[in-house]
Design a protein that fits this description.
The protein has 14 helices and 13 strands. The protein is an alpha+beta fold and about 425 residues long. A five-stranded antiparallel β-sheet has the order 1-10-13-11-12, covered by helices on one side. A five-stranded mixed β-sheet has the order 6-7-2-8-9. Thymidine-5'-triphosphate (TTP) binds next to β2, α1 and β4.
Length: about 425
C-alpha cells in the first residue's frame, strides 16, 4: 500500500480538480519552525554523468564540450563495453584547434585552471592531457529528472532551477530542522548518490539567497549549514560576485566604488546604494548583503490528489466481511491522512474506489464545505461515498482519495 500522489488528474478522479497548480508556499516561517531552505547543486554535473559511462576516466582531467560527434562511435571498435575502452584511446585536448567551448570540467581538470565557458583552445594550452568528451544533453536531462525525483520523494517542496540545481524547503519536512537541516541534507545527498551514482553539494540557510551561497562553500560532495548568526563569519568575507544576481556589470560598478566583499557592501549606508544603483537594485543589494530574502520556494507542479488503496488477500463481502472491511477502510484513511499531513496538504473532495471480483470498478466522491486532512473527517466522508456504491458483489480492492488539494494552513497563519 504505497502512497499515491497524483500531479495529474487520474483514473481515480471522477472530475478533474481545478485547484492545485501554481500554488506557492508562504514566505515566512512560523515562530516554532524557522525557515530552513536548502540549495542543492550537482558536482561537475555533465562530466560526472559521463564518468558513469566511462569509469576508467575517474580522477583524470576531463572536459566536456565541442562537437556533437558521439565519442562512443569514434571509440567503439566493435562489441567492446564503454567501460573497457582503454584510457589511451580517448581523444585529448592536445592539439585541439577550433572554436568549441567547455561546458564543464572535472575537479581534476579544474586544478589546471580549466573550467566552464573557457575556449577549448585555451584549455588545451593549460591542460593538453585532459580527455575531451562531447556533450550529450539527452543523457544529462535523464539524470536531471532522476535526481529531482529522489528529492521530491523525501522533501516535496522543491523548486526546479535548471538542469543541475534545485531549492528545497526543509521547514515542514519531518527532521528538516534537526541540526539546522544537516540530518536531512545528509539523507538527501546519500539518497541521490545511491539512486544515480552522482554527488552533489547542499547549503541550508534561512533563505534562498544564503542557501545558494552556502551550497558552494564545500564543493564537491559537501554540506554547509548557515544560520543567521553565521552571516558575518561565513558570508561577509565572500566577494560581492558570489551573490546570486550580482552580474559582471554590477560587480564592475561595485569595484569602482571600492566595494569588494559582501561585508563591505553591508557596511555601505543604504542611501548610498540607492543613489548609485537606483531604488530597486540599491535596496536589493543592501538586503542581500545583510542576508535578507523572503522569496518563497515555488514548486512548479502541485499535486492535485493523494490516495491510498489496497487489494485484499481474499475478496471481501460488504455485509459478511463487514468488520474486516471496516478495519481496512479506517486504516487506509489513517494512512492517507498521514500522507497529507506529512506533505502539508488538505483537500476538499473525498472519494472512494471499489473494484469488484469481476474486475469492474466504480468511484464515488463528494465535495466538502471545508478542507480536510484528518483521518476521522476523511473516514466519515468516505463512508458516505461507500453508501452510494453498489455493494452486492464481493470486493477485490478498496481505495480512498482526497482531491482538490491546497496547502494546509499552519496554525499561525490564517488561510
Ligand atoms: P554548474 O552547476 O554551474 O557547474 P557544474 O555542475 O559542472 O560544476 P559545480 O560542481 O561547480 O557545480 O552547471 C551545471 C551544468 O551546466 C554543467 O555541468 C554544464 C552546464 N554549463 C554549461 O554548459 N555552460 C556553463 O557556462 C556552465 C557554468 C554550466
Ligand atoms: Mg553543478
Ligand atoms: Mg548548477
Amino acid at each position: 500500500m504505497l502512497p499515491n500522489v497524483q500531479h495529474q488528474p487520474s483514473f481515480f478522479d471522477d472530475e478533474a480538480p481545478a485547484l492545485g497548480a501554481g500554488l506557492v508556499r508562504e514566505g515566512a516561517g512560523s515562530a516554532a519552525q524557522p525557515r530552513r531552505i536548502a540549495h542543492l547543486d550537482m558536482d561537475a554535473f555533465y562530466a560526472s554523468v559521463e564518468l558513469l559511462r566511462y569509469p576508467q576516466l575517474k580522477g583524470l582531467p576531463v572536459v566536456i564540450g565541442g562537437g556533437r560527434r558521439r565519442v562512443d562511435n569514434a571509440l567503439q571498435g566493435g562489441e567492446r563495453a564503454l567501460a573497457d575502452i582503454p584510457v589511451a584511446e580517448f581523444p585529448t585536448l592536445s592539439g585541439y584547434s577550433g572554436r568549441g567551448v567547455i561546458t564543464t570540467a572535472t575537479y581534476a581538470a579544474r586544478q589546471f585552471g580549466v573550467g566552464s565557458a573557457m575556449g577549448l583552445m585555451k584549455a588545451a594550452a593549460l591542460c593538453p592531457q585532459a580527455v575531451l568528451l562531447p556533450v550529450d544533453f539527452e543523457e544529462y536531462r535523464r539524470f536531471s529528472r532522476a535526481f529531482k525525483a529522489v528529492i521530491t520523494e523525501i522533501a516535496p517542496v522543491m523548486e526546479d532551477r535548471g538542469v543541475d540545481e534545485v531549492y528545497i524547503d526543509f521547514t515542514q519536512v519531518p527532521g528538516g530542522q534537526r541540526e539546522g537541516g544537516l540530518a536531512l541534507a545528509r539523507l538527501i545527498q546519500r539518497s541521490v548518490f545511491d539512486a544515480t551514482g552522482l554527488t552533489c553539494s547542499i547549503g541550508v540557510a534561512p533563505n534562498k539567497l544564503l542557501a545558494k551561497m552556502a551550497s558552494e562553500l564545500r564543493k564537491p560532495n559537501g554540506i554547509s549549514i548557515v544560520q543567521e548568526a553565521d552571516l558575518t563569519k561565513l558570508i561577509w568575507p565572500l566577494a560581492c560576485r558570489k551573490i546570486n544576481g550580482v552580474g559582471p556589470k554590477a560587480d564592475k560598478k561595485l569595484t569602482a566604488l571600492g566595494i569588494h566583499t559582501i561585508g563591505e557592501l553591508a557596511a555601505q549606508p543604504r542611501d548610498n546604494l540607492l543613489r548609485h544603483f537606483g531604488k530597486s537594485q540599491g535596496a536589493w543589494l543592501h538586503d542581500a548583503a545583510w542576508g535578507r530574502d523572503e522569496r518563497p520556494v515555488v514548486t512548479e507542479s502541485e499535486p492535485v490528489s493523494m490516495s491510498r488503496e489496497t487489494t485484499f488477500e481474499r475478496d471481501l463481502h460488504a455485509v459478511r466481511d463487514r468488520q474486516a472491511l471496516s478495519e481496512v477502510f479506517t486504516r487506509l484513511c489513517e494512512q492517507l491522512a498521514a500522507d497529507l499531513q506529512r506533505k502539508g496538504y488538505a483537500g476538499r473532495t473525498v472519494g472512494i474506489k471499489l473494484r469488484y471480483d469481476d474486475f469492474t470498478s466504480v468511484t464515488r466522491d463528494m465535495t466538502l464545505p471545508t478542507l480536510v486532512a484528518e483521518a476521522s473527517a476523511i473516514r466519515q466522508a468516505a463512508g458516505l461515498c461507500l453508501k452510494r456504491a453498489p455493494l452486492t458483489k464481493r470486493l477485490r480492492l478498496l481505495g480512498v482519495r482526497v482531491g482538490t488539494l491546497a496547502r494546509a494552513a499552519r496554525p499561525d497563519q490564517p488561510s
